[in-house]
TrEMBL record:
PANTHER family, per database record: NICOTINATE-NUCLEOTIDE PYROPHOSPHORYLASE [CARBOXYLATING]
Catalytic class of the enzyme: transferase
Gene Ontology molecular functions: nicotinate-nucleotide diphosphorylase (carboxylating) activity
Coiled-coil blocks: none
InterPro entries listed in its UniProt record: Aldolase_TIM, NadC, NadC/ModD, Nicotinate_pribotase-like_C, Quinolinate_PRibosylTase_N_sf, Quinolinate_PRibosylTrfase_C, Quinolinate_PRibosylTrfase_N
Function comment: Involved in the catabolism of quinolinic acid (QA).
Record keywords, A-Z: Glycosyltransferase, Pyridine nucleotide biosynthesis, Transferase
Organism in which the protein naturally occurs: Sanguibacter hominis ATCC BAA-789
Entry's transmembrane regions: none
Protein name in the entry: Nicotinate-nucleotide pyrophosphorylase [carboxylating]
Reactions mediated catalytically: nicotinate beta-D-ribonucleotide + CO2 + diphosphate = quinolinate + 5-phospho-alpha-D-ribose 1-diphosphate + 2 H(+)
Length: 320
């Protein structure tokens, strides 16, 4: 149901691509489409224009620029940088920009660290500046927020020595889900599901519509036998009912820590006859509660704020 968690680089500046370091990469076709839309938004329909830059700087002026972190954080989304600049150059017939990435996505960085060095037409650098910053800053902000959760959970192993994992949700910005969920992977988190198509999530309204938990599970199994089935429960009794009905995964919603722990024990007691059931805590989760929630024995914690409320990481493009 879940992707393999991203690797967790500590600092420094490895040059190894993120994919090699265990983080499933951004889809190249998605990057190209998204950048094209973002540039149209900024420049007008292709090729568009930047009335300030094109009026004040000739197309043959070449300089170097540095992409710099203005604060500490975890980097993500740097793959958009060369794509933005390549599309700008193609639109305006400019010579290509040379892009050298000094750090890999998923790397912790300190304020002032140079993330990338760009050399090419100043027109291209300035036209593409805001677009590449918008995307990379957002992704890095999500990665930084996720890393904070990953750090707390890694420092709070459960009784069996394993650690709970932080998950994202579908609370992403429309059109940017691919970027948001990639950034979660860069921060050490795991993607729960990419959309409505890959995992069945039976919530209270589905139960009402179907008539019961068992009926909802049976209908999913009959219609989409290839997907895992998760059921939302906010009471211990509901969790037990869902396991007995054949759920693969439980979403334990807004449970106090003592109720959550009791629910985990009850579900685990059913596993010899019903098989392994993965358990996810959600609702009203904070970093201050994370260690206590992990101690209940849940496998995951899903945190919508990773993608719907994370502040950007402040990045800047400095012309040299």
């Amino acid at each position: 149901m879940t992707d393999t968690p991203a690797s967790q680089p500590e600092s420094a500046a490895p040059s190894t691509p993120a994919a090699v370091r265990g983080i499933a990469p951004l889809d190249a076709a998605w990057i190209a489409r998204t950048v094209a839309i973002a540039l149209d938004e900024d420049l007008g329909a292709a090729p568009g224009r930047d009335v300030t830059t094109q009026a004040t700087i000739g197309p043959d002026v070449v300089r170097e620029a540095h992409l710099v972190a203005r604060e500490d954080g975890t980097v993500a989304g740097l793959a958009v940088v060369p794509e933005v600049l390549a599309q700008v150059c193609a639109r305006f017939g400019l010579a290509p920009v040379e892009v050298s990435l000094d750090v890999a996505d998923g790397t912790r960085v300190r304020r002032g660290v140079v993330l990338a060095r760009l050399r090419g037409p100043v027109q291209a650098l300035l036209v593409g500046e805001r677009t590449l910053l918008n995307l990379a800053s957002r992704a890095s902000g999500v990665a930084t927020a996720t890393r904070a959760w990953s750090d707390v959970l890694d420092a709070a192993p459960r009784a069996d020595g394993t650690c709970a994992t932080v998950l994202d949700t579908r609370k992403t910005t429309p059109g940017l889900r691919e970027l948001d969920k990639y950034a979660v992977r860069c921060g050490g988190g795991t993607n729960k599901r990419m959309g409505l198509y890959d995992v069945a999530m039976i919530k209270d309204n589905h139960v009402v519509a179907a008539g019961s938990v068992s009926a909802a599970i049976e209908r999913v199994r009959a219609t989409f036998p290839d997907v895992l089935v998760q059921v939302e429960a906010d009471l211990l009794e509901q969790a037990v009912e869902a396991v007995e009905a054949g759920a693969d995964f439980l979403l334990l919603d807004n449970m106090p820590d003592d109720v959550l722990a009791a629910t985990v024990r009850a579900v685990r007691a059913l596993e010899p006859t019903h098989g392994r059931v993965e358990l996810e805590a959600t609702g009203n989760l904070t970093l201050d509660r994370a260690a206590a929630v992990a101690a209940t024995g849940v496998d995951y914690m899903s945190v919508g704020a990773l993608t719907h409320s994370a502040p950007i990481l402040d990045l800047a493009l400095d012309l040299q």
